[in-house]
């Protein structure tokens, strides 16, 4: 088949598919299918979230298999708790740092604006 004829067939086929989808969407025939797809996606997301929560302990870290060593378990939980506290402290430090940087940029902007006005 000649190359130009193939291109016309592809263009015509894509136009036909586009017109068919547009017709189905405006007639509402795709709406039930779209609703079923959305329900399936939300159910899958809920299952994934529940499995994610089950694999984590109260600090948000993955649970490791129990080694039945109480001294190690105490050390592990204390270390994870300390890491969690350090992370929250670091996040608050970063927020303070960003706030200071934003304040400095704003002050510089206002000073430049005052200098231009003079």
Detailed description of the structure:
The chain has 118 residues and is an all-alpha fold. It is built from three helices and no strands. The chain has helices spanning 3-27, 31-54, 70-117. The longest helix has 48 residues, at 70-117.
Helix/sheet category: mainly alpha
Q: How is the biggest beta sheet arranged?
A: none
What is the 3D shape?
flat
The helical percent reads over 70%
Summarize this structure briefly.
This protein is mainly alpha-helical and 118 residues long. It has helices at 3-27, 31-54, 70-117.
Tags for this entry?
118 residues, mainly alpha
Spell out the blueprint of helices and strands.
Blueprint lengths: L2 H25 L3 H24 L15 H48 L1
